[in-house]
Design brief:
23% helix; seven-stranded mixed sheet; alpha+beta; single chain; Luciferase, domain 3; 3 domains; four-stranded antiparallel sheet; GMP Synthetase, Chain A, domain 3; 16 strands
């Protein structure tokens, strides 16, 4: 089950809704009081639960499984969920509202490495392919736009034939707009959104790769990376970072952590420490608002120069 703006916890065959809207403390209390065995939510919900000041006070030992979906899950967050929330059988699901909504999902029987680094394999009776900018199917292991086809794909957008035609081609393939790699065993790794990809000096930079690395920093609680216009390189890498409670850091601390570990052009040129990210009601980070905020703050132009 995927729940929109609520954290959903399961107790046997019973679904427990902790509150009318997401609240990490209420979720933790419900898991303990109801002895729930599974917990569903988006990554930002799990992050909020893990970082809650009272987290250690709750007995979550009844948990064993759950689903994390809605947006890409940072590997380090997945590891914390497994280790600190006892969710050894947690899986990741991927899809869209337009695909009813899950296309790929990992399995509890997959190795932990598979479950923390991919979104699993295509669902039964569904098809998937990865294409390049010319619409050609790329080989396994090569990044491109992920497309899916099958019974779960919507018929179309209500009374909007033009938008439907943009999303679903003549052969029935749903174009997700997500950049992905499918390996030889069929496991899919979402590397980012095509519209979020940063083009710096002709180099394609995937924000998620930088985010995954910055999540390893011991002081970083959450991070979002976007591209902002730059006169010299076309775009510059900007990282918004939320530090763990009680921690402090400087922009140079973050850059030094990156130097020599990731390519020089991926090291954030701008680092902003924030208390929160703009999100949708379902907890998805709204990167376009982060980009807009930076453009307004720096007096830049939206138009990409390269």
């Amino acid at each position: 089950m995927v729940v929109s703006n609520l954290a959903c916890v399961l107790h046997g065959a019973t679904i427990v809704y902790p509150s009318a809207g997401f609240d990490p403390l209420t979720v933790l209390r419900a898991v303990q009081d109801e002895r729930c065995t599974a917990l569903h939510g988006v990554p930002t919900m799990f992050i909020a639960e893990l970082q809650h000041p009272q987290f250690q006070q709750f007995d979550l030992s009844s948990l064993r499984a759950g689903i994390m979906a809605g947006s890409p899950c940072p590997i380090e967050v997945m590891r914390r969920v497994v280790d600190r929330m006892h969710m050894g059988e947690v899986t990741i699901a991927y899809g869209m509202t337009e695909t009813s909504p899950v296309s790929f999902q990992s399995s509890p029987h997959d190795s932990l490495e598979r479950r923390v680094s991919t979104v699993g394999r295509i669902q039964p009776h569904m098809e998937a392919k990865v294409i390049d900018t010319e619409g050609r199917t790329v080989p396994r292991g090569v990044a491109g736009e992920l497309c899916s086809r099958g019974y779960a794909v919507m018929i179309g957008y209500w009374d909007d034939h033009a938008r439907t035609a943009e999303a679903i081609d003549a052969e029935g393939w749903m174009h997700t707009g997500d950049l992905a790699v499918i390996d030889d065993e069929g496991y899919c790794n979402i590397v980012g959104r095509s519209k979020d990809m940063i083009i710096r000096g002709g180099e394609n930079v995937y924000p998620r790769e930088i985010e995954e690395y910055l999540f390893r920093h011991p002081k970083v609680e959450d991070v979002a990376v976007v591209g902002v216009p730059d006169e010299r390189y076309g775009e510059a890498v900007c990282a918004w970072i939320r530090l763990r409670s009680g921690e402090t850091a400087t922009e140079e601390d973050i850059r030094e952590f990156c130097r020599g570990q990731i390519a020089h052009y991926k090291v954030p040129a701008m680092v902003c420490f924030v208390d929160a990210f703009p999100t949708t009601i379902t907890g998805k980070v709204q990167k376009y608002l982060i980009r807009k905020t930076m453009i307004d703050k720096l007096g830049l132009s939206e138009q990409r120069t390269a």
